[in-house]
Structure formats: C-alpha cells, structure tokens
Amino acid sequence: MVLVIAHRGASGYYPENTLKSIQYAIEMGSDIVEIDLKMAMDGQIVLMHDDAVDRTTNGKGLVKDLTIQQLKMLDAGGGERVPLLTEVMELFEKSTVEFMFDISSPGFEEQIVELIHKQKFDTRSIVSGAHNPLKLIKLLNPKLKIAPSFDIASDHSIMETAAMGAGIFNCHHASISRDVVNIAHVYGLQVIAWVVNEIEDVHRMIEVGADGITSDYPDVVRRIVRSTRA
User: Fold this and answer.
1) What single string gives the DSSP state of each residue in 150-208?
2) How many structural domains compose the chain?
3) CATH number of the domain to which 92 belongs
C-alpha cells in the first residue's frame, strides 16, 4: 500500500503547520504527517516552514528573533496559533500516525533528538530535509529514521541517501521514474515523492512504484490509492 503523507498537515484545506491542519490530516487517513520545524529565540521548537513569519502569519520578522510569547500572539490563519512541537506531541500522543519532521536549517539537532526520545516518539518519527543536520541527527541517534530531501533524482542522489544511513529517498516527484524507484529499492530505500497535488501526477507516482506520496490533499491521494487497489 502506498503511504499517504500530509504536507504540512492537510495544508490544501487548512492553514499549514497548525494543529487544525494536523488533526484533519489524521482524520483524512494520512499515514504520515509532515511538519516543518524552526527554533525560536528562546530555544523552543515551533512549527514553521519559512525563516520569517511574514507569509503564514499576520506578523513580521524572523522566527529566530522572536520569543514563544511573541509567536503565540500571531494569527497563523483562521485564528490558529503557531504550535510548539511539544504541543503537537502531547496532543497526538495516543495517535498511531507517524510524523515527518522537516528541518531546513541547522542549530537545534540535539533538542529534536532529545524531545523525540523524551516524548517516546522514536518509532513514530522520520526526520527529513537538509543533509548536514540529518547527518548529525543520525550520529546522535542511529536508530532514528532520516529522509534527506532532493530536488532531482539521480544515481548519485540515491547513493548519497544510502551512504547517510537513510532508509528513505525523499525527492520532488518530477524526476521520479520507474528506473529511479528500482535503483532506490536495490539500495534498500523507500521512495517518497513530494509535493504531488495534481491527480495525473498521483496516478503516475503510483504507476512508477513510489512507496509514499506527499500532498497538500491527503484525502485525494488516499482515495486514488484505494481505488487503484480495488
């Protein structure tokens, strides 16, 4: 069965990287919920994709220059607030869904590893994104699953993924082909395609054998996956 990964939660319907988008992604039948992480000025980890809050909230400024108190005052869309990673883990503690924590910048690898272990999320976590932070995370906890992100699929990028000790080749869907999937499988890697929002692209990823599909519309992907199996 192809895994359904909700991109920033069910971000096609609700404000990205918010508790509401995560909740609805789970209700839509997602296997994995992908969320983006940044560290605030006071060292706590929050959900945010961009370095700045300008695009997704009614505020301005860099996440690293704002305290949790300042971030919590912002509207992240529809009255939603910027969540702490600890809030996500506590709220969905009893859920069986897995989480993909995406990191695009270094500096808080130790905190993430410690938090994942403290909250008993070790077996429910995948850490994706920038390569250097993932290398450090793998050193800190070799048992954690990592998924370095690539814009273009190639033999080199697949080999690089395997050399990092990753179990997942996480790549933009445009260059993923049946050959790419076959080579990745030879290296023992799962293939996750991102971000797949067009119906024809979802069908293509299923046809070439991708193991997982990341989308802003997890319900649509789930429906197509089920109908393909029927």
Assistant:
1) ESS--HHHHHHHHHTT-SEEEEEGGG--HHHHHHHHHTT-EEEEE---SHHHHHHHHHH
2) 1
3) 3.20.20.190
- What gap in Å lies between CA 164 and CA 216, rounded to an integer? 28
Residue 89 structural domain: 3-229
Assigned token pair, 22: 């995560």
| Cβ neighbours for 198, distance < 8 A, ≥ 6 positions apart | none
* pLDDT interval class at 229 (50, 70, 90): confident
Among 34, 171, 11, residue whose Cα is nearest residue 98 = 34
Whether 230 shows a pLDDT value over 90: the answer reads no
Active site residues: 7, 49
Report the distance separating Cα 158 and Cα 128, nearest Å: 15
